[in-house]
Design brief:
- The chain has eight helices and no strands.
- It has one domain.
- By secondary structure, the protein is mainly alpha-helical.
Length: about 250
């Protein structure tokens, strides 16, 4: 919802800026007419176009990399958890409740994020992660190893779980700042100024207004992509749950 609101704001802002440029042509007196300053305005607009393209492209690339990094971290986290479950299976039937708890947690996450789409963003923070996984960590630590084989299996499970926890915390910290909002704000301002300049250099007619509206929508969709890629667990470009579903299938076998 936030991405839609931001997109609409960008579309309206750029369109209004372009329309203001069209209207200002009619208000300028002859000695300040646009025709006498067309070369300078065109040069500045060319520079602004280049800067906007570079920064906008960089933002889209960064948020795409952020989204793919979350996907990669999810895959790494699931592979580690599968190995932890394998170590627990080698520990013996005493670890069955712990394994059931791990699998139930994955199933609950899958349902909240990819089925219902009701995941609370507060649950994705580092603090919430530590609190939520503390019982599982204590359950693994509390296993009573009675044989050397069980001791080795418990140590392996603990190591894998700590690796899983580290990756999960990294994902939470990355989610805190998916992209620079200040930089996005600068891009939006540049886009408005650019459309204002286009309005100054254009004739006021129906075709111009249609082109202005189309350009505003294009810029709005570019911003929409940036914001949506910054929400990999709730946005339109939600990352694939394939690694999670495979982990659920592989565990407790």
């Amino acid at each position: 919802m936030e991405s839609v609101i931001i997109t609409l704001i960008v579309v309206v802002l750029t369109f209004v800026a372009g329309y203001a440029g069209l209207k200002i042509q009619d208000w300028l007196v002859e000695h300040n007419s646009v025709a006498q300053s067309r070369d300078m305005i065109g040069s500045v607009l060319g520079l602004l176009t280049l800067l906007l393209a570079l920064v906008l492209g960089t933002l889209i690339g960064n948020t795409y990399y952020f989204s793919t990094a979350q996907q990669s971290n999810l895959q790494s986290m699931m592979s580690t958890l599968i190995l932890a479950d394998k170590s627990l299976s080698e520990f013996g039937p005493e670890a069955k409740p712990v394994r059931d708890g791990m699998k139930a947690g994955l199933e609950r996450t899958y349902e909240e994020v990819w089925i219902k789409g009701t995941l609370d963003p507060d649950k994705m923070t580092a603090g919430a992660t530590l609190t939520g996984l503390a019982p599982l960590e204590k359950a693994i630590d509390g296993l009573d190893a009675k044989t050397p084989a069980q001791t080795a299996a418990k140590a392996a499970a603990q190591g894998k779980f700590q690796a899983f926890l580290g990756t999960r915390l990294l994902m939470a910290l990355q989610l805190a700042v998916p992209f620079s909002k200040a930089l996005l704000g600068i891009v939006i301002i540049w886009a408005a100024l650019l459309f204002f300049g286009y309005g100054l250099l254009s004739k006021h007619n129906s075709t111009t207004l249609v082109a202005l509206g189309f350009g505003s929508i294009c810029v709005g969709f570019a911003v929409f992509i940036i914001v949506e890629l910054g929400e990999p667990y709730s946005g339109l470009f939600r990352i694939s749950p394939a690694a999670l579903t495979q982990a659920i299938d592989a565990m407790d076998r």
